[in-house]
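> Could you send the EAL domain-containing protein prediction when you get a chance?

Sure thing. Input:
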Amino acid sequence: MAPPAAGSAPAPKESMSRASGHPFSTPDALPARDGAAVRWRWLWPLALACLGLPFVDVLGASPGRAHHAVTSLAHLQWGLILAVAMLAPTPVYLRTLFPLCYLGWVLRAGWESAGSMQAMLGHGTTMLPVYMVMYAGTVLCARLMGWPRAGSHRHFRQRDLPAFVLVALLLYPAGWALAFALSLSASGADTQEVLDRASYLFQSRYYGVVLLTLPIVLLVTGWRSPAATTARIPNVERAIIGLFTLLFLWLLHIPQEHQDLATRILDHRYLVVTLMVWLSLRLSWRCCVPLLALVSTVLLVCIGQSNLAHPAFAAQRTALLGTELAAIQQVCVLVLLIGSNGRLALRRAADAALVDGLTGVPNISALRRDLARRETVPEELGLLSIEHVDTLMASFGLPAQEALTTALHAQLQASLDAYIMGPGRFILVPRARQPVSWNEVLQGLERFEFRYADTRLRMEPHLGVATLAGRGDAALDAALHAAFRAKRMARQRAETSPVFADTLESGDAGRLAFQTHSLALSLLRQNAVELHVQPIRRIGQDQAEMAEVLCRLRGPDGLLMPADYMEELEASRGVVELDRAVIESVLGWMQAHPDNGGYQRLAINLTGRSLVSEHFRNWLLHKLDLFPGAPGRLCFEITERAIEGGIVRAMPLLQSLHQRGCLIALDDFGTGMQSFDRLQQLPIDLVKIDGAFVRNIVSNVRDRELVRAMVTIANAYQAQTVAEYVEDAEILRLLHSLGVDWAQGYHIARPAPLPQMDGSPAP
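Output:
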């Protein structure tokens, strides 16, 4: 079942077109009560443009039209119509504006015929079928290019350029030319006239698209797009652009024979291209696109003027320069799009760096940014951790963790600003001029109920609070360090109230313990293990038959004793590495010493994490199976604390070891609340009585009676007893009278390195 929503969905962002006030806003982006008014408000100026543009000429010599040598090179209104077809969210625009363009062209024909009504009607009747066909053709061309579009897809993209070139610059003018040619052929015009006028129509529509269609589409869809490069213009760049500009003006100023200004501009058009590309990089779309259209218009006017000055080469020159003009425009647009896409990608990457990738919750980078923007810095911050997040993920999967993070963030945001710092961890920052009660924050989380997949879960939060002494990364890092220590202390003490960092001692001890832990792991992985043994002797005999293996780590400054590193290792998987290193070393030593150094068995301690590890169990049993006879020479010691809460998972390993012939010893017997139960549940062969009951057995009657009871219970379960901390002969004598089987301690022998093991007691 899908998880319930953690909160209400955010309101959708307004489309860019609506925010910028463009005429082609999508209907769903406009209020229903005034959407129509907005459409008509923009329709009037567009209608006037469609009626007026037919009277705007870009004069030039048209190829093949000797009887009408001077004509307009571009029909701008049809470039506008194609832009409307691409951008208009409803057919209302095109259905209104297309007939107005037709009407404007009819009025232009009448104006050219000195107001002859007959000429107007004749032209209108002749061209009506062509315009009807091309209405459908215009819609088809827009559809072929993937327009109109809605929502966030309305931007002109880099991959739209090929379709625009093929359809808008080739297919659209060709459709007009073909429709007009068929109409003329049907009316009985000769072939040459049909070709001439169709060629002219193709040219005029082509230039209309070049000058208006793409600039309008870019301007509308990218109105709010910034410049591709917003960095400050360096002086070197300014100098280079200034030199280019001066060079261009100087070249135009140099008089050349039989060349007018328009021809000189065209001859140096590549300098213009350089400036246009630079403008595409440095100006925003709303500034760059109109300049691009203006420069294209100037170049087209120059083409027209040059054709008038040299009509003999009009056809070739118009075709060549027209192709170059379109190519120049496409290059500039491509530069604009690539730069804009790069900037957009950088902005998205920057935004993504401020939130968690899975949940979208603000992270510590967002915290640093927000603190830098604040007028006043809060006096405190909190570090919150939620217990059992790993268990939640293991039980329900990653979506449950995402849902929990989102729900917790929504809960916390009601009273302060929350930033994620890993699974189940949040940095809490009070808002400006808004006091916060940390106790109430914690109590609110305790009351919070998380629902997921028909399951209701309660939170177990821990909160540490620290002082934020100033602005900047250093102050924030120091506060987070202190808050984390306070949170950790709250977790260790099982506090139900916030722990404040200023009430804690220095963190030097914790830092030292962590360094020792890291050193221990490093030494283990370098196999810097040095084994010692302490003999265990049967009471009443002179020769020790067993010995307990003790591990030391050889560091650069000497030996590390177990008391130095065991507490930190036991809190991590490092103890499993320790157990493996000890067993590897002992088995290797046993292979080199078949007599076991004179001892029947060597006792190796196993930690709780190793006992419940399936991988460790398989590894150990495999090692023993590869070494025949080893189980009969080994004893494995466990403590009640090591198997507490995991006896079911530890049982398979203990039973397998016992079945192979290993002895199992229960260490620190008597210190736990369930020591006697363990004798019944586990395959125990030896019971090691904790030294706390042995050390004062001579003078403490209660200890003596407890040891007597332990011996009786162990015998009832067919387990022998071993007394630890036997430090003098009087203790040994008393243990013998109580029926203890084995003794271990300084009176028996002190620990010695494994190679020196000879079984003799220490002096």
